[in-house]
Write a structure and sequence with these properties.
It is built from 20 helices and two strands. The chain is mainly alpha-helical. The protein has one domain. The protein starts with a helix and ends with a helix.
């Protein structure tokens, strides 16, 4: 018992950034009731104080993150419930950076009477993402995912109380609990096959069972895990909630949904696939398992990017279009996951996936930041016609949005170009007919995606403004977040090597 208590106490020392985020969230929840009266918020500065506390918590957590262990492969493993390897370090940093940007985006968008609860939900979601990367156990992994999901339900409800918003929240809730049930079902099969919930013990157990045939239970477990995580990464056919939820909720809520669940979902998939020995290893069933898992991921990636891009072409609502865009980008990232065990050529699957995930975070959060900046609290700029002539009304916001549209398309001089290029090279260099076929399909989908991204850019710059412009004011905190994302997007085009070296060390 004493040893178990000591292990738990030591484990908390390894997740201090998450402890800070949870403590700040609890503080916001405790203070929230005292910031209200029957007539509404007591102080007009309530929104700013909650946003400032969130930024301070994220800043302190980031400082603790930078004091963490050196980024060295295989040297950062911790015993107990948490692990501190390079992947955990990378996901934690990406989560904290995007979290700060999301706080700026939502600074003026959260309702003043509920700003404390809303910021608390956001901090809890970010803590959950970090813990999915740090979890060293199936139970901890599932609980961390639920720490992402449950605050998301509350945040979506708080952001939009309209009938459309409540319908969107209900759809997300029902599909999320279904995916959680399937994921937990897969975890139970993994536990049944390995006899333990420890990820490291599962990996070692699989290696020691080299002479045994592939248990059917293991294949079923992995398929269930892919299905459960597919909801988080908006993979088809688990994507049905995304367009309605993105359209029904507030723009700030759509920004959160575009990156936070996706980051958690891909982290879970990377963690569990890393448990499996490589197809060319000495483990007997490895090749057989690869024959089951790789085709499933291949088809999931192809269908996801094709459906996302084709349906986006038909949309006039910008947020709905970006929802299908998010689905398509999830398909692109699944390409990296598909070839992760057969790394070859100039770039590997894991490296390309992590590079794409980081770039995607900046460009999609930046796009939603600009849409939030030109929207009001009670009136959202949604329709493509409302963006017509934006370059004449708000030239700065129009330029930022154009940068993100070009990056989402994959055009230079933006980081989106290298993100797509690395994935294409990784797929082609894997050398198999399936990997080269998916590279060609991805290139065709990138061309399809250019159609709807450039249609938005054309409306901004080539169409005349309406007689009564929808854009009257600018949300400066959200616009600042957009500016920071644009700087990162352009910087990673001109200096991508440092990020590539970073993700290469993670996948080593």
């Amino acid at each position: 018992m004493d040893q178990a208590v000591k292990s738990i106490i030591d484990g908390f020392g390894h997740v201090l950034p998450e402890v800070v985020l949870v403590a700040a969230a609890c503080t916001l929840l405790l203070l929230a009731p005292f910031q209200k009266s029957a007539a509404g918020p007591i102080s007009p500065g309530t929104r700013h104080s909650c946003g400032l506390l969130s930024l301070l918590a994220l800043g302190f957590a980031a400082w603790l993150w930078l004091q963490g262990p050196p980024l060295e492969p295989a040297d950062g493993l911790w015993s107990g419930p948490f692990r501190g390897d390079p992947l955990a370090w990378f996901v934690r940093g990406l989560s904290l950076i995007t979290g700060g940007l999301l706080v700026l985006i939502s600074w003026k968008q959260f309702a003043a009477e509920e700003t404390g609860e809303s910021h608390a939900c956001l901090l809890l979601m970010l803590a959950g993402v970090n813990l999915t990367a740090a979890a060293n156990d199936l139970v901890g992994l599932f609980l961390a995912l639920e720490l992402v999901s449950i605050p998301t339900y509350i945040l979506l409800y708080l952001l939009c109380r309209t009938s459309a918003g409540q319908e969107a929240t209900l759809k997300y809730f029902l599909l999320s609990i279904f995916s959680s049930a399937v994921l937990l079902y897969g975890f139970s099969f993994l536990y049944g096959a390995a006899g333990t919930t420890s990820l490291e013990a599962i990996r070692q157990g699989l290696v020691k069972s080299a002479a045994t045939p592939l248990p059917v239970i293991l294949a079923v477990a992995l398929i269930a895990v892919v299905v459960g995580a597919g909801f988080r990464v908006t993979a088809v056919p688990f994507h049905f909630y995304a367009p309605d939820v993105f359209q029904g909720t507030h723009t700030a809520g759509a920004a959160v949904l575009s990156i936070v669940p996706k980051l958690a979902g891909f982290t879970v998939l990377l963690r569990l696939i890393a448990v499996l020995p490589a197809p060319d290893s000495a483990w007997g069933p490895a090749a057989t398992l690869s024959e089951v898992l790789t085709p499933a991921l291949w088809w999931l990636a192809v269908i996801t990017m094709c459906v996302g891009n084709v349906l986006a072409l038909w949309q006039k609502n910008v947020r709905r279009m970006l929802a299908y865009s998010s689905i398509a980008h999830g398909g692109y990232m699944l390409v990296g996951l598909t070839i992760a065990q057969s790394r070859g050529g100039l770039a590997g699957g894991v490296e390309s996936l992590l590079f794409y995930l980081a770039v995607y975070g900046f460009m999609t959060v930046g796009a939603f930041a600009v849409l939030t900046a030109i929207s009001g609290r009670d009136r959202q700029v949604d329709d493509l016609d409302e963006l017509a002539g934006l370059s004449r009304i708000r030239p700065g916001a129009a330029l930022l949005l154009a940068v993100f549209l070009f990056s989402l398309t994959g055009l230079p001089p933006t980081a989106g170009f290298f993100a797509k290029f690395n994935l294409l090279v990784a797929a082609w260099s894997a050398g198999t007919a399936a990997s080269q076929a998916i590279a060609v399909i991805m290139a065709l989908n990138a061309a399809i995606g250019a159609g709807y991204y450039l249609r938005i850019a054309a409306a901004i710059y080539l169409r005349p403004a309406s007689a009564e412009p929808a854009v009257r004011a600018v949300d400066l905190p959200a616009l600042s977040a957009g500016l920071l994302c644009a700087i990162a997007t352009l910087f990673l085009f001109f200096a991508p090597q440092w990020l590539w070296d970073l993700v290469a060390r993670i996948a080593a």
